[in-house]
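step: validate -> pass
step: tokenize input -> pass
step: predict -> running
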Amino acid sequence: MSKNQYLTTSEFAKACGVSKHTLFHYDDIGILKPEYVNEKGYRFYSLKQFSTFDIIVTLQEAGTPLSEIKEYLDHKSPTRFLSVLKQKKKQLALEQKKIERMERLLQTIYDMTKNALQVVCDVPFIQEFEEEYLITVALSPEGIEKEDVKNMGEHFDYCADHHIEYTYPSGIIIGKDHLERGIYHKPEFFFNKLLKKQKGEKVHVKPKGKYAVINHKGGYDMLPKSYVALVNYIKENRLSIIGDAYEQEILSYLAAEDPSDYIIQIAIQVD
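step: predict -> pass
step: emit ->
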């Protein structure tokens, strides 16, 4: 090629839609070196190097690290190209699943927050619930926060390792025995709601049926007061507690700055 068919770094960068510094970086790591460098140190690129740049961009957009792209360019072949594409397709499929999960999660949070702004607070009522499946982790009986943090970390690791997809709301479970003894500050389990029916040692089934419900507005320190109001409502209406209490945040720190604006739903299974 004659010299007038070469492009300067600025010309090549402009044609590729990148900065000169990007090309300098590619040169430094040996992924796209200029066709030649003159005696003054100026870099020049040939037209055929557009194909190499195109390979780099295509693989980068598929999430391939520059180190892997360099390795491929150093040992380029049709078989290796097919292998790289197959690997990238698998990675993109996983990314797509993550995006879809996040879309569902955001929609759930949006709907939950919107509905929370319309609920009646601090007034007990009866509601029928469908069966729900919850993934749970046991909490410290002594209420040791450090131990609970450790258990929660292991809980989320377990969900990730077993590809368990959960959603909001999350919350805690207070056992029937504690309810009957007036112990409202010692939850036994933390839970996340599962998207579908599952089996497993950590799966807890929230039964279908009748529940006495109250939407507590305010911080956690005032929750016992709402439990007392709900239990009194159950007694006044000649109902019996036949199951656990499910306490879940429907408006929390995710949307509210002041804890006095939190809305926490308490539901106790009754008959």
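step: describe -> The chain has a mean pLDDT of 91.
step: cleanup -> pass
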